[in-house]
Amino acid sequence: MPELPEVETVRRGLAPTMEKATIRRLETRRGDLRFPFPQAFAERVSGRRIIGLGRRAKYLLIDLDDGTTLIAHLGMSGSFRIEEDDAAEVPGTFHHPRSKDEKHDHVIFHLEHEGRPVRVVYNDPRRFGFMHLWPRADLDLYPAFSGLGPEPTGNLLDAAYLAERFRDRAQPLKGILLDQTVIAGLGNIYVCEALWRSRLSPKRKAGSLVTPTGRAKAALPVLATAIREVIADAIAAGGSSLRDHIQTDGSLGYFQHSFSVYDREGEPCRRDGCGGTVSRIVQSGRSTFFCPVCQD
Question: Which residues are catalytic?
Answer without folding.
Answer: 2-3, 58, 286
